[in-house]
Amino acid sequence: MTPDYYGSLDLPPLKLDLVPADLEQRFHAKSRLLHPDRFARASAVEQQAALDASSLLNDAYRTLRDPIRRAEYVLKATGFNIGEQGTKDVPGDLLEEVFEFNMALEDADEDEVAAARQRFVEMRNQIDDRLPKLFAVHDVAPDRAILEELRSLLNRRRYIANLISTASGEGIRH
Amino acid sequence: MGTFQIDFGTSSKSPRIIGIDLGTTNSLGAYLDATGTPRIIPGADGQMLVPSVVHYPLEGAPVVGYAAIEKLKSDPKRTVYSAKRLMGRALADIEGENLTYAFDAAASTQVIHLAIGVTPPEVGAAVLRTLKQNAEAHLGESVSQAVITVPAYFNDAQRQATKDAGRIAGLEVLRLVNEPTAAALAYGLDKRKQGLIAVYDLGGGTFDISILKLHDGIFEVLATNGDTHLGGDDIDQLLMTVALEDLQSEWGIDLSQNGEAYQSLRQAVIAAKHALSTAPAVYLDFSWLGKDYRRELTRDVFERLIMPIVDRTLGPCRRCLADAGVTVEQIDEVVLVGGSTRIPLVRSAVENLFRSRPHTELNPDEVVALGAAVQAGILAGDVQDTLLLDVTPLSLGLETMGGVVSKLIHRNSTIPASATETFTTAVDGQRNVLIHVVQGERELVKDCRSLARFDLKDIPPMPAGLPKIEVRFLIDANGILNVSAKELRSGQQHSMEVTPSYGLTDEQVEAMILASIEHAEDDFRERQVREARVEADQILAAIEKAKANEAWDALTDEQRAVVNLATNQLLLAYHGEDHELILGKIEELNEATHPLAETMMNTAVQGALKGTKI
Fold first, then answer.
1. Which of B136, B190, B201, B399 is the catalytic position?
2. A21 reaches B (C-beta below 8 A)
3. Has B21 been annotated as catalytic?
4. At B585, which CATH number?
5. Is the same domain home to B349 and B261?
6. Calpha distance B558→B528 (Å, rounded)
């Protein structure tokens, strides 16, 4: 069901800790081989195969080059449901913070909104700092507990990202 | 046919692919020469540009290019210009556009019909056909495959319309390439091994900005942005408004509805605009029915007038930088493309934004066609180490509950790109599922561009939610959407009916191809003359070459005189319009060169016997 992004880039399956430069180098090398430009005068069957292979390659690179989308892909491929649910429920420790933030939005208190935004950005950065360690641990010994921790971290991150985008614009204008 | 058939080194190769820049104002063709250098293909008149203007006489074949520009003033209703702005659009999109030809408001809403009975793709096809013929005459071989450039910000319908134009013109369009990307290729910036390039392309009708990353011959587009309705035409229309108002107050007449007057004033305005790129002030001269109008236009006033138009290009530039995830400081080089970048104000705006001096070495009118020829070389396998990885300019999405768009493929995704989505039924026994695909960045369907509706038909009656149909959306390397559906249980392809929101159906394109073949009857005579000239070129070139051979010196004075006389007679016939005369003179020249050919053969044989090469 999930397309094989790792196979497309000749990467070991579901490895989370990837090096951007290596990924780019693989992407370029495989593009040279698979891009439809290389098959402009080939048979219809070969052209279709090139189209399928290169679109898979492009989809794979686009997904795996981004650590968040990469982690989501791995969770999905290992059977986790990572729908929108996690973004709706307020993480417990954020309840008070979110309440104050909504007040500031209602009062159109720009200073308070900006300050909240700054705190949310810091929270997101903290999560982003934790991810590589979690990736490395996963790659050494992949187990379900780590993936579950990863999922809850990503849900929290998505929730915070929504708060940041609200604080960055659309919330204040009306 | 001819007997003068010594092979002077032309080897038979796979058919050539030409590159074409189908522009709003001008179009050009280009090819890769034997050394791999892109070259512009001149027309029979020796001009590189073919103005994208088509005149449709009441009878006979359409007239294209400079000859059609002449008709803009005398027959404006039957002369079409800036048709690229109408490609893949509906009548409602072009309201407020002041064009001197009329539209058929009663025709279908999917495609614009001009009152004279043609659609924009057919107008494009007329220009493409001229470029094809120019290429055939210049290269001396038939040409049926092409790479055509389109504005990077063209949507699916506009791309499809361009491809249709190619088909109608008898060209297999092997690839649509984005204009700014083509320009980057032409600049040979691959000589620089790595770096970030911004291409700023302001043409006659469209504006594009693209940011590319170069890496060992790979041109990876990081992001693109633009406006398919912003260009030199807008400047012309602005100047026209000012001039028409001025004329109204001076002469007390409104000339805006008079096609002849409008076109001749428009040409005066365009001439003034061009002159202001080098002169600090010009006179706008216009005469109408014995009255003369003259106004001085300084560059200062001109710049204040067009400032808002130039400013409109800066927003897309900033969004493009943001999408590419790079800052202005990281950009290594900036390239200017399109005739409107000759305007000093445009240059300084770009310089201010990117804080670096842009590249202008190549002619901004030619650079896109040259790049298309390089891409043609890539497709033909003649250019091995270069590869373009382009992106889709607009997000692709589906209509969901409440008219909200759910994005499937985001803008600036490298193409080919794909996404799959599984659909099911909401009601027991439901037989159809309707999918509405849109293109654009906005949240609501009504603010995006409707692309097509797909009807998944003949779903076997089952309880709601049980049927599972997987639909795959794939944007190909031309930036055009392909959709296929699969019934997940059986794994079989599921049939569907596609209704494009804008554009011609396959049947309509077929009919236009047939119609163009009928027109081709009219073109036939002209074509025969061109073909005869191509043949003449070949024999003349062969003889010129043979004259350097020692066999030429071995001929008697008399034999040489006969060849020279026949050559001169062919040259005289060459410039006439009688193809039979040209062919007759070719035959005579062939006869005259018999002794030369024989002597050359003998020398060759003797050379071979001696074991030496000639």
1. B201
2. no
3. yes
4. 1.20.1270.10
5. no
6. 33
In chain A, which residues have their Cβ closer than 8 Å to the Cβ of B222? Answer: none
Type of residue numbered B596: L
Listed residue (B571, B568, B583, B578) closest to B532, CA to CA:
B583
Task: Measure the CA–CA gap between B91 and B108, rounded to whole angstroms.
Answer: 9
pLDDT digits 0-9 by tens, B309-356: 999 999 999 999 999 999 999 999 999 999 999 999 999 999 999 998
Distance from CA of B378 to the nearest CA of A (A): 7
Which value does ipTM take for this structure?
0.88
In the prediction, which pLDDT does B502 show?
Answer: 83
Residues B102 and B44 in one domain: yes
pLDDT tens digits, B159-215:
999 999 999 999 999 999 999 999 999 987 556 678 999 999 999 889 999 999 998
Q: pLDDT for B458-503, tens place per residue?
A: 888 889 888 888 999 999 999 999 998 888 887 778 878 878 888 7
Rounded Cα distance, B137 and B479, in Å: 32
**B378 in any annotated domain:** yes
> Measuring CA to CA, which residue among B295, B165, B170, B181 is closest to residue B240?
B295
Is residue B12 a part of any domain in this protein? no
Asked if residue A89 has pLDDT above 70, the reply is: no
Task: Please say if B236 is a catalytic residue.
Answer: no
Choose among A28, A41, A62: nearest Cβ to B218: A28
Contact partners, residue A28, CB within 8 Å, separation at least 6: B215, B216, B218, B220
Concerning whether B13 is annotated as a catalytic residue, the answer is no
Q: What is the CATH number of the domain that holds B195?
A: 3.30.420.40
Tens-place pLDDT, residues B259-316: 889 999 999 999 999 999 999 999 999 998 889 999 999 999 999 999 999 999 999 9
What whole-number distance in Å separates Cα of residue B407 and Cα of residue B421? Answer: 11
Structure tokens at B613: 């090469």
Asked if residue B163 is part of any domain, the answer here is yes
Chain A: give the shortest CA distance to residue B540, in Å. Answer: 34
- Pairs of residues, one from chain A and one from chain B, whose beta carbons lie less than 8 Å apart: 58
The residue among B330, B356, B350, B382 whose CA lies nearest residue B37 is B382
Q: Are residues B70 and B166 in the same domain?
A: yes
Report the greatest alpha carbon distance in chain A.
65
**Nearest to B213, CA basis, from A53, A65, A135, A126:** A65
CB contact under 8 A, B417 and A58: yes
Position B8 confidence tier, pLDDT thresholds 50, 70, 90: very low
Last residue of a domain, one of B354, B389, B424: B389
DSSP conformational letter for B13: -
Tokens of B24: 């709003």
Q: In angstroms, rounded to a whole number, what is the distance separating the alpha carbons of residues B521 and B485?
A: 43
B476 chain-A contacts, CB cut-off 8 A = 36, 51
Q: How many domains does chain B have?
A: 4
For residues A76, A81, A87, A90, the Cα torsion angle rounded to the nearest 10 degrees is -130
Q: Does A46 touch chain B (CB under 8 A)?
A: no
CA of B157 vs chain A CAs: smallest distance (Å):
21
Q: Which helix (H) or strand (E) holds B482?
A: strand B481-487
Instruction: Kindly state the DSSP code that residue B358 receives in the 8-state scheme.
Output: P
Give the span between the Cα atoms of A58 and A8, in whole angstroms: 9
Question: Looking at residue A90, what DSSP letter applies?
Answer: P
Indicate whether B223 belongs to any domain.
Answer: yes
Domain containing B487 equals: 396-504
CB contact under 8 Å between B175 and A37, yes or no, is yes
B163 and B39 assigned to the same domain: yes
With beta carbons under 8 A apart, name residues in chain B contacting A56.
418
Contacts of residue A55 in chain B, CB cutoff 8 Å?
Answer: 415-418, 474
Q: Which of B504, B520, B536 is the last residue of a domain?
A: B504
Measured distance CA(A68)–CA(A161) in Å, rounded:
12
By the CB < 8 Å criterion, does A59 face chain B?
Answer: yes
> In chain B, what residues touch A28 (CB-CB under 8 Å)?
215-216, 218, 220
